[in-house]
From TrEMBL:
The keyword Aminoacyl-tRNA synthetase does not apply. This is Acyltransferase. GO terms for cellular component: cytosol. Residues 211-230 are annotated as: Disordered. GO terms for molecular function: O-acyltransferase activity. It holds the Pfam family Hexapep_2. Keywords: Acyltransferase, Repeat, Transferase. SUPFAM superfamilies: Trimeric LpxA-like enzymes. The lineage of its organism: Bacteria, Bacillati, Actinomycetota, Actinomycetes, Kitasatosporales.
Amino acid sequence: MPKRKNTFSSRAGRLAQRAVHAGWAWAQRTGSVTAARPGRFRFRALGTGTRLAFPLGTVFGEPWIEIGAHCIIGEQVTLTAGLMPDLDLGPDPILRIGDGVVLGRGSHVIADTTVIIGSDCYVGPYVYVTSTNHSYDDPHQPIGKQWPRMEPVEIGPGCWIGTGAVVLPGARIGRNVVVAAGAVVRGTVPDHAVVAGAPARVVRRWTSAEGWQPPLRTPAPVPIPEDATPDQLRALSALDDEAVAHLATLSDPPPARLPELETEG
């Protein structure tokens, strides 16, 4: 009985595989969108150092979309302004994304009316942010044929939105808020809060008077000394748990240099 031939086990197969990977890497580099290379897109603003990864998701209404500097927009991210392409949405921007924002792969930001994402927000993959929801007032009409409801959405600076979260129309999320994975957010969320669930509820909050309540169960990370070298950090990554625990007991603020004992693997 003849042996089955695995195409990719042959030298020609391996070369073909390398060529495919190299071609895809070239397409990713060439197809990404930046301020210097916007392609067919004409964003109202696209900041320095910002990149929309290729392949892109659905993008339209870009004359009413502002994206700040040093943002990372992952693959297959949808950014839309208006209900459909080629609408005149007036003189003001509809979707505003601040500086240093990260939007994870497969996320959607649907701005049929104003949506604001503050600076330094980190949005995980497959997050859905929308200013529009279906209405179902008329029980005799298909829901998809009824005029939708629109309410502005605002996400404050410094937030972390976990994987698969949904931010609904009318949501007002404060500064430095953590939204747990899979949460469904509506209404107002105060600053420095952690919300989880569907609908999302505050499960932890920080105030200047009481700190975190309920208290955090894990110790705060040890800050990295400013003059730490890459070699020292690589050595630290190889330390065992006992050495890391010892590092956590070092003086506060941390010493100017990492002790030699802590940098030896």
